[in-house]
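sorry for the late reply, my laptop died twice this morning and i had to redo everyting from scratch. anyway the thing you sent over, i finally got around to it. pasting the sequence first so we're on the same page, its 319 residues, then the predicted structure underneath. double check i copied it right bc i was rushing
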Amino acid sequence: MKILCIGEMLIDFTPVRGMKNTYTANPGGAPANVAISAARNGITAGFLGKLGNDDFGKLLINTLKEDKVKILCPELTDEATTTLAFVTLDEGGDRSFTFARKPGADMMLDESDVKKVDFKEWDLVHAGSVSQSGKTSRERDAVLLALKTAKESGALVSFDINFRDKIWDEKECAEESGMIFPLTDLLKISEEELGFVGGEENIPDFMKEHNIAVVVETRGGDGAGIFFEGGVMDIPAMKVEVTDTTGAGDAYWGGFLSALLRQGVRKVSDITAEKLLTAGRYGAVSGGLCIQKPGGIPALPGLKEIEERVSKDLLTPTS
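ok and here's the structure:
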């Protein structure tokens, strides 16, 4: 059971509650969050992405090592500093981001880095759209090559739109994501990203157009919808007190993908509604546990904690 995540790892500067203009440096970055979530779920995880040759890059390398995530680009780059994200939380714990990434080290991934990877070693390969942003085409080509090679090697391909308006505009994100959709088996979107697929009512047709097996729409406190074979299962969220939503979607997705792999899913034909239901419950609990704590990666739960809550929170779906 092996997941490889490709893209950005960065520092989230998270506000310290009760202390004005004070931040804590937490490790984060959506693909890295998913990798560490998977590792904490008992899955062998790897991370393919560039980090800066600076104190923050060294902190992030150590973070990956602590969770035993395989580091496929261990050399720190001098071409740019590690990307930074400053998090703003509203009264309900919802977050927004301001990025220091002009450029950031995560943008330095190269096709040569991808060609060193044996994709036959991995059961599932995951990436997000932030990897496609930036003025250089280098990382875009690298991520596309990685996902194409993963697909050709027989791995499942997972993609998270993960649109960030402070990084690029919707049109450019849609164009870049459009090149990845045909490679995608498992697509994660948020309700704010429904425009990228033509609206919720268009999801089944969008899936047919791009031959996507599963689309999961995360809806925050309203749970998630799992679209599969023309139908949708609506799984409620855990009812918890929200502290910080940073990394919640990645916690969901890490729990979801890990549960699929533990159930023996290695190819699209292995996916069933029952397996998706189980994965959806694990994802909902993983996300629910995450938002009760501050920070991204520090808040990601482990398998034991998730399973304890899954047995208590039935999270009965509707369809």
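The chain has one domain: 2-310.
thats about all i looked at so far, will dig more tmrw
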